[in-house]
Amino acid sequence: MKPPPFDYVRPGTAAEAVALLAADEDARPLAGGQSLLPMMNFRLARPSTLVDIGRLPELTELHRDGDVLVIGAAARQRAVETSPLVAQTCPLLPAVLRHVGHHQIRARGTIGGSLAHADPAAELCAAASALDAEVVAASPTAQRTVDTAALLLAPYQTTLHPDEIITETRWPILPRARHGFAEISHRSGDFALAGTAAVVEFDGAEVARARLAGLGIAGTVRRLPDAEQVLLNRALTAESITEAAEAAAASVDPPEDVHADPATRRAALRAATRRALEQMRHD
Amino acid sequence: MTDTLTAVREISLTVNGREVRRAVPARRLLVDFLRDDLMLTGTHAGCEHGICGACTILIDGEPARSCITLAVQADGCEVTTVEGVTPDDGLSPMQRAFKDCHGLQCGFCTPGFLVTLAAAEPDDHPTDADIRELLGGNLCRCTGYQHIVDSVRQAWGRS
């Protein structure tokens, strides 16, 4: 399996990249290529031109901006997974990244690429959803900030315009929050049947704020508001976790596909939600 | 297969310590560039969609899938293949361990395992479970994994 013919350009700046994308509606940005190239090998994607943004220095920055962790769109997943700054400011990210493909994939795959690919089972999309992360999208004429909920539209579809690229991703730093992540997959490293990213903030012993995002259970990664509601204004206990896991499972209507039927995915979400919450329990 | 419709780009990179400068079609996968243009046939093309790990090589020291990387993306990079982790004469300690412990049968997947392992620090993978996690991105269809884990343990001096 080989990709069909295409042209390839490696611009020197993000501005050049979006100008190239604007000039050719069949051109596509190439970051790590860990999703796009398999799709091209299968001939599921046939871009006319690949605009390689994977090594633009301005897109690979990683720094703290007040109470936000800023990660360039083309920062490699493995670099983020192993970054001391990320571990310190946004511990959910390394916890989630360990489940993204295998480390050979993460060495090439990028943070922005995963969000822009919008796989319904993408762990990074779940982390972004649970943390209310934002992306900065640039076109030749404008720059805008898009929150995760507004970014993810449908399987493999975002609200990005064809001449836009994600330039940076912005992750809120929540020093007092606890986090958890779990997913259920047939084999380690496979796409998960379902998974849950959880971010919980406490007021004393009680849950003041809970944000749960489920993956693999709908057309996009989505929040689980029923489960979040169950957790509020009470301690995080075995009982509240069970109720939240039940609420999560009852609130979704997963699609049927060759990998699992809806009941299996619902059960997987129940288990993943329970495990993610157990990780942060403090009785 | 014709490349006449595709753009050609000049790339220069280091492969196993040797400077290489070639004109390649943009669509040329790195695995095919290594095998067909440079005749480095130790890197194997298995699934060709990033699942099996037979095509694993190092790009700037990090293991990566050469079947879902374009040759043009390796421009300016340092690439290491299984040939590059093999001594000029004889076998590396890891290769000898694979031989001793029956860590290979047909051998198709072996280059990918060896390259993944070449980039690993033993101290980062202290337990058998860690070794299995490390090798999770490499599939073997005949030997199974126990003998491969045994090979790694021998090469890393664990009884």
Fold and architecture overview:
Chain B: This is (2Fe-2S)-binding protein. Chain B: Keywords: 2Fe-2S, Iron, Iron-sulfur, Metal-binding, Oxidoreductase. Chain B: Residues 9-85 form the 2Fe-2S ferredoxin-type domain. Chain B: It comes from Saccharopolyspora mangrovi. The complex is a heterodimer of chains A (283) and B (159). Chain A is α+β, with helices and mostly antiparallel strands. Chain A is 33% helix and 25% strand. Chain A contains twelve helices and 14 strands. Chain A has helices spanning 14-23, 36-41, 77-81, 84-89, 92-97, 103-106, 111-117, 123-131, 148-151, 225-231, 238-250, 262-278, and strands spanning 7-9, 27-30, 49-52, 62-65, 68-72, 134-138, 143-147, 152-154, 157-158, 165-172, 178-184, 194-203, 206-215, 222-223. In chain A, the strands form four sheets. In chain A, strands 4-5-10-6-7 form a five-stranded antiparallel β-sheet, with helices on both faces. A four-stranded antiparallel β-sheet of chain A has the order 11-12-13-14, sandwiched between helices. In chain A, helix 10 runs antiparallel to helix 11 and helix 11 (238-250) runs antiparallel to helix 12 (262-278). The radius of gyration of chain A is 19 Å and the shape is globular. The mean pLDDT of chain A is 96. With 159 residues, chain B is of the alpha+beta class. Chain B has two domains: 8-85, Beta-grasp domain (Ubiquitin-like (UB roll), Roll), CATH 3.10.20; 93-155, Orthogonal Bundle (DNA polymerase, domain 1), CATH 1.10.150.120. Chain B has helices at 30-37, 93-100, 110-118, 128-134, 146-155, and strands spanning 8-15, 18-25, 56-59, 62-65, 78-80. The relative contact order of chain B is 0.15. Classes of the chains: A alpha+beta (283), B alpha+beta (159). Chains A and B meet through helix 2 and helix 6 of A and strand 4 of B.
